[in-house]
Amino acid sequence: MKYWCEYAWLGGASVARSVELEVVDGRFVSLRTDVASESSGSTVLPGVTLPGLANAHSHAFHRALRGRARGDTFWDWRDGMYALAERLDPDSYGTLATAVFGEMALAGITAVGEFHYLHHGPRGVPYDDPNEMTRAVAVAATTAGIRLTVLDTCYLAGGIGEPLSPVQQRFSDGTAEGWVERVDLIASSPSVKLGAAVHSVRAVDPDSIATVAKWADHQIAPLHAHVSEQPAENAACIDRYGKTPTEVLGQAGALSERFTAVHATHLSERDIELLGGAAATLCMCPTTERDLADGVGEAHRLVTAGAKLSLGSDSHAVIDLFEEARAVELDERLVTGTRGGHSAEALMNAATSGGQRALGWHEAGRIAVGQLADFVTVGLDSVRLAGSTQDSLLSSIVMSASAADVRTVVVGGDLIVDAGAHKSLDVERELAMSIAAVWD
Amino acid sequence: MKYWCEYAWLGGASVARSVELEVVDGRFVSLRTDVASESSGSTVLPGVTLPGLANAHSHAFHRALRGRARGDTFWDWRDGMYALAERLDPDSYGTLATAVFGEMALAGITAVGEFHYLHHGPRGVPYDDPNEMTRAVAVAATTAGIRLTVLDTCYLAGGIGEPLSPVQQRFSDGTAEGWVERVDLIASSPSVKLGAAVHSVRAVDPDSIATVAKWADHQIAPLHAHVSEQPAENAACIDRYGKTPTEVLGQAGALSERFTAVHATHLSERDIELLGGAAATLCMCPTTERDLADGVGEAHRLVTAGAKLSLGSDSHAVIDLFEEARAVELDERLVTGTRGGHSAEALMNAATSGGQRALGWHEAGRIAVGQLADFVTVGLDSVRLAGSTQDSLLSSIVMSASAADVRTVVVGGDLIVDAGAHKSLDVERELAMSIAAVWD
């Protein structure tokens, strides 16, 4: 299968013109630039073709809160989110996740990391298959046509030294060993990878973090954790352990280049050194961090210290990785008074290869021979991008494009989105029906 | 002409269902809710119908900088913007402004305040008609089908006590009296109003501010000014006058309920009291304030003190008043750590009646009998808004809608945008051609 791209981003600070891509067995096998006209039979992709976008941090079910999220603080908001979590079962969760992953596909997202902690039935009673919820999420991603990394989440306590609330019992495997026992039953596939997550230092004690980290080391799997999203988490952690959350994670052996710190909003100097020194990934979720009044993390300093950058739409107040990408830079400008900490190239890397790497998809995220043929074409036929030139296109897309500008999405050579519409799902209808169902 | 709206926002915290609007001679003459089915011949508007949006602060020509804006600071950015300003003449300015106002129409903007300071030819030589540039802007708005308030801007100095640079000479009428003499020649029309602007305390001395303010009082016209966008402006002002910019404006007689402070990012306690006490309008331009690393203004405190809120897309890095509206709230969350300072209702008021009021269109901005029939319908057939209910729709639109969701725009009873497309302009093409022309 051959594609002729009006423009394609092959890395670097600008886009290439007239690029011919050849895909065989789901991978790029050749790539030529400045191909004056398309060869017969090649699919023409007008606009700018990018590597598939990676959404490195998702809680799919939070999408049902869009427009309904109340509460003056993060903690109040969490109560509303828990009320939603209590309503879900494998059927309703699977239907909702299918629709949400469909919305992601329409936004050009070809791989998602689902930070998945809603494991068990009411009052924590396991389903007959203890991974029934995980399976529902995996089927959802497959149905929507995108790759999935299940970041299967260990969640054991309601706070440092605090018991689980009734809804939190659904998240818990009792012990880290119980978590290992369950996740060892999960099978992966060519489009579904398994990774680990520690919910946070609030929900997992240091010994249990070490158990999860050891499992991830053994499996050479990604390991993610929410880190220092709110000042109250830092205060409780320092109070109990005399260490910051990052220090606790470091001492438990969690920090490595396979580790992703989600949010990392309120860090100490030492935290920045630790995460940078480990070449860990930072997952910024700016539209959620805005929504939840978290604050602005120091992404520029973390990257300078050696950390890699990735992006997540997290609570899905918005599902638009262009919006997340520019928000990393724009929100830092608001608090530093300086422009340009993150280049358009760096932000596009975060949205593509940075996120794919964080999810363990090392063979995706670049348009290059041998890589998985996951790619996305952004149309230039909108008022948002009108007036761009070859030199300014990358910057225009990062700063001004919308998920609504995504025209074509291909995952492993398969066409998932064509002319801005999902090939197999009526996503708007699925969203409306599945969200109505959980609130009815 | 009758319209049947699936939902319409008639003010308040939620939307009404099944609303029939009747328009005669460009105004609403009747309004009925819960009209079960449309009467024969009425136009059906699926989605949510809102009052026309008002863009209270625009520099149309900045649109040509989208994706091309460089510089580490506001001041470096300004150099690039001046380089653009130098290239413009009435023809190229008019063509570009037509396209930009067309982009605004597509985003549901039915009235724009053009903060217009590029008055004269190279080296400040007036055109044969000294208001030729203003006329080009007025023709542009009329061609695009939207209402315009020309905020004709007085600009006399390159900084406090500093001479004009060559490009700034194009902005200047020499004296405030020269400004009055020129603007008194400008005719208004049913769709074009005339207002005044003081560029800033950097560019206009206190005596000249008083002259402009007096003109605006006499004309009962809106008066706008850039206020405290950057800390350096405050420092220079206090250094020279021993007063903040707001205090200087207050002493010159500029503050009233017809005054709009644009940005007002870095205010003192006393400034907040002055603006609130005058019931002045605050015009927040959050996507520009992010882009230019201005900081986060204290909109919530200003509103609490008595100021009204309006919105502007300013430099047009983005033209999307829904994005501006939510950013007021979301950016404040980032710096305060608290959610919900501005309700969805308050933010929608800012995007509609607040902005219309700031531009002197007191008969627009509400769907009510007697008001101008300026209205906008947002489609619910996108993934962004799927899953909303009548109760959550207003919040969903403010927090999640995109300008791309605007389907229908009516100004004074005339259909300007239908099915998401401009009725008389190929806006994408006009943008591409006019922007290419200014950079060629």
Describe the structure.
The structure is a homodimer of 440-residue chains. Chain A has 440 residues and is α/β, with parallel strands linked by helices. Chain A folds into two domains: 2-51 and 365-422, Urease, subunit C, domain 1; 53-358, TIM Barrel (Alpha-Beta Barrel). Chain A has helices spanning 74-87, 90-106, 132-144, 166-169, 176-183, 206-219, 231-241, 245-251, 269-277, 286-291, 299-305, 321-336, 344-358, 393-400, 427-439, and strands spanning 2-8, 16-24, 27-32, 43-51, 53-58, 109-116, 147-154, 192-198, 223-227, 259-263, 281-284, 308-311, 375-378, 406-411, 414-418, 421-422. In chain A, strand 2 (16-24) and strand 3 (27-32) form a beta hairpin. The N and C termini of chain A lie far apart (46 Å). The model of chain A has no long low-confidence stretch (mean pLDDT 96). At the A-B interface, helix 2, helix 10, helix 12, helix 14 and helix 15 of A face helix 1, helix 2, helix 9, helix 11 and helix 13 of B.
Quick recap:
Chain A has 440 residues and is an alpha/beta fold. The first copy, chain A, is built from 15 helices and 16 strands.
Which terms would index this structure?
alpha/beta, homodimer, 22% strand, TIM Barrel, Urease, subunit C, domain 1, 8-stranded mixed sheet, 2 domains
Topology:
The structure is a homodimer of 440-residue chains.
Chain A lengths: L1 E7 L7 E9 L2 E6 L10 E9 L1 E6 L15 H14 L2 H17 L2 E8 L15 H13 L2 E8 L11 H4 L6 H8 L8 E7 L7 H14 L3 E5 L3 H11 L3 H7 L7 E5 L5 H9 L3 E4 L1 H6 L7 H7 L2 E4 L9 H16 L7 H15 L16 E4 L14 H8 L5 E6 L2 E5 L2 E2 L4 H13 L1
Helix pairs in contact in A: 2-3, 2-15, 5-6, 8-9, 9-11, 12-13, 12-14, 13-14
